[in-house]
């Protein structure tokens, strides 16, 4: 099993990627959304609205998974994790949400009255994920092991992803 100390996982957690966040809907289906996140070295924090489906799902069932994928076809690697969930409110939520916003928004955006305060008002709670299970993958290693580096040496073999 992977660890938070693995360099590849730390690179993903500290990088500016969009993660996929999954919770359980009341009908037992999965609700999955794209989220911004911030990593403090131990836990992952997701800023959100208390009115969001993910926050409401977590109130009823505090189980979730988060996936970060580098989404580079020539160097696809990622991590999926699950763990203990807490929903933070009040001042601690504001503090962590500000960290999330600083990770993804420029200083100019945060200072803009049309942007910074809107995000701060929307995101009134924070989801804290303390990972207990991590699964990592690195398709570069699979390419070396299974194909002898064919895809790294022939990037045209992989079609470009839509952006």
Secondary structure layout plus pairing:
Blueprint: H1 7-14, E1 19-24, E2 30-35, E3 38-39, E4 44-48, H2 53-60, E5 64-69, E6 77-88, H3 90-104, H4 107-111, H5 116-122, E7 125-138, H6 139-147, H7 150-153
Antiparallel strand pairs: 1-2, 1-5, 3-4, 4-7, 5-6, 6-7
What does this molecule look like?
The chain is an alpha+beta fold. The chain has a single domain (7-137), classed as Roll (Pnp Oxidase, Chain A), CATH 2.30.110.10. The chain is 34% helix and 31% strand. The chain has seven helices and seven strands; from the N terminus they run αββββαββαααβαα. The protein has helices at 7-14, 53-60, 90-104, 107-111, 116-122, 139-147, 150-153, and strands at 19-24, 30-35, 38-39, 44-48, 64-69, 77-88, 125-138. A seven-stranded antiparallel beta sheet has the order 2-1-5-6-7-4-3. The chain starts with 6 loop residues before the first helix and ends in a 10-residue tail after the last helix. The mean pLDDT is 93.
CATH architectural category: Roll
Write the H/E string, N to C: HEEEEHEEHHHEHH
Distance between the termini: 31 Å
Spans of at least 5 consecutive residues whose pLDDT stays below 50 are none
Q: Class, according to the CATH hierarchy?
A: Mainly Beta
Determine the number of helices (DSSP H or I, runs of at least 4 residues). 7
